[in-house]
Structure formats: C-alpha cells, structure tokens
Amino acid sequence: MGGRLTRVFRTFNVESRARREISKEKPTPAPWHPSTRMDTLHGHPEIKEEIYRKDERLLSLLKEVYVESRDPPTQVKAGGGEQLPCKVEEKRLTKLGQLEGLDVNKVPKGKISIVEALTILNNHKLHPQTWTAEKIAVEYSLELKEVNSLLEFFIPFVVQEFPKETKKAI
Fold this sequence. Notes:
Blueprint: H1 2-11, H2 14-23, H3 45-52, H4 56-64, E1 91-93, E2 106-108, H5 114-126, H6 133-139, H7 144-153, H8 164-169
Antiparallel strand pairs: 1-2
C-alpha cells in the first residue's frame, strides 16, 4: 500500500518537470586561472617545444638502469638449533574407580573429566557433609570458586521409579 502511494507522488507531472529541468540555462563554469590556460602557450612556442622535447641525456641514463632481484638463500639449521619454549601442562591421573574404561586416564591439573564431574556431583549429593567443596577442590586439584560454581549450577539426573498403583493415579 505504501509503495503505491509513493509511486503516485513520484510519477505525478513527470513530463512537465523534466521539460522544465531541460529548458533551464546551463550554469557557466568558473573561469580558469590564466597560468593554466593552454591558449597562453600559443604565444610562446619555445615553452611548447620544451614540453614535448625528449631529453637524450636522461633517456640514455634510463636505458642504463637494470634492476635484478633475487631472494636471499634460505639457511636451514642442521638439527639441534634453538627451539621455542613450549608450554608443559602438568597432568594428573584420574580417580575413576569402577568406571575406568569409560574415560581418559590423564587430565591436566585444574580440570576434570566428564565421568569425574558426574562422580563429584553424585558424591556431593549423597554425602554433602563428607564431600564438601573444599575437600573436592583439594582432592581433584581444582579452584574453590570453580567447585562452588559446579556444585551450585549442575545437578545430576535422578531416576525415580513409581509404584504401579501410583501410575494409575497419575
């Protein structure tokens, strides 16, 4: 709807507006500075000659110039050279118990595997007095702040089985 309305205003009286614009007098350009005008050279033919003349001395010097470019040879060190220092991560063995075959065996310090995370959450849920955040942080080489966040925001799933008589009530 809006497109049709704007098109009507845009095309209203187009021909007369175009004729009016075409019939307008063209604006005169600003005058050139006298030093930039080419007709001033007509009175001085020596200047015109100087512009178009080739300078043989400069041309011969230009012909003598030869540029040759080569890449420098690459030098390969014959082993045992300086090596960049690499970051060595300390790793610790995981504490998996009976789920050892399900997960990785070594984890960097300050991190835990998925199976360990589920074990920590389950232990804390079942025995919160023995598995406190401080004990978990010391046991698994974690920061206390991260352990508190883990225990606060992640909750393991609980499987509940309802007795048959309550299923009918649901």
